[in-house]
């Protein structure tokens, strides 16, 4: 007897995928976007959708479950962490101090990811708000080579950092989700 869930996927066309192409909101027909900025934004959008998809269909307990002890990482913690990270990135853009932490002390994003629906709902609201605010700040700089903030960081670099952060944590989300209910796929 084991507490490990059986591996499964909803995909029928490509069984190693998360969903069939017709059901995958990341799938687009036709050529990709034109230009560097549009391409970077498209990749970021795809990873944001991937995180959301990895969390869909789970209840508060499952989202808050720390599936790889002794790590404090959970899917809910990742949502909160990425909200915090979006907020931090805006601090790189300006000349004023970084915005206050959303979840308090270091690791508050993961430590406060508890199995309560109100915490889950607040985390998704926080993430959406912080994504919108960061996107709005970046939209003021349509040239990816423009340099901003005290450190004169290029918009391109800020976007690549965001993509990297989401991509890395979507990999974590793959493993966390599989451990929770066995669902697999990219």
From TrEMBL:
* UniProt-listed InterPro entries: DinB/YfiT-like (IPR034660), MST-like (IPR007061)
Q: Which Gene3D superfamilies match?
A: dinb family like domain
- The protein's name: DinB family protein
Where is the segment annotated Disordered?
A: 1-38
Q: State the species of origin.
A: Streptomyces ramulosus
Give the Pfam families listed for this entry.
MST (PF04978)
């Amino acid at each position: 007897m084991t507490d490990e869930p059986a591996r499964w996927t909803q995909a029928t066309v490509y069984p190693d995928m998360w969903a069939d192409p017709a059901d995958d909101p990341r799938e687009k027909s036709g050529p990709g976007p034109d230009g560097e900025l549009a391409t970077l934004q498209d990749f970021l959008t795809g990873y944001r959708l991937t995180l959301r998809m990895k969390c869909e269909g789970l209840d508060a307990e499952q989202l808050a479950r720390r599936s790889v002890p002794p790590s404090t990482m959970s899917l809910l913690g990742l949502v909160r962490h990425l909200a915090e990270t979006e907020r931090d990135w805006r601090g790189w853009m300006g000349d004023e101090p970084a915005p206050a932490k959303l979840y308090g002390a270091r690791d508050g994003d993961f430590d406060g990811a508890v199995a309560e629906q109100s915490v889950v709902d607040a985390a998704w609201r926080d993430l959406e708000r912080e994504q919108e605010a960061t996107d709005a700040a970046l939209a003021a700089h349509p040239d990816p080579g423009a340099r901003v903030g005290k450190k004169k960081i290029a918009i391109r670099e800020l976007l690549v950092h965001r993509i990297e952060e989401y991509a890395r944590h979507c990999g974590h989300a793959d493993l966390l989700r599989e451990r929770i209910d066995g669902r697999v796929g990219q």
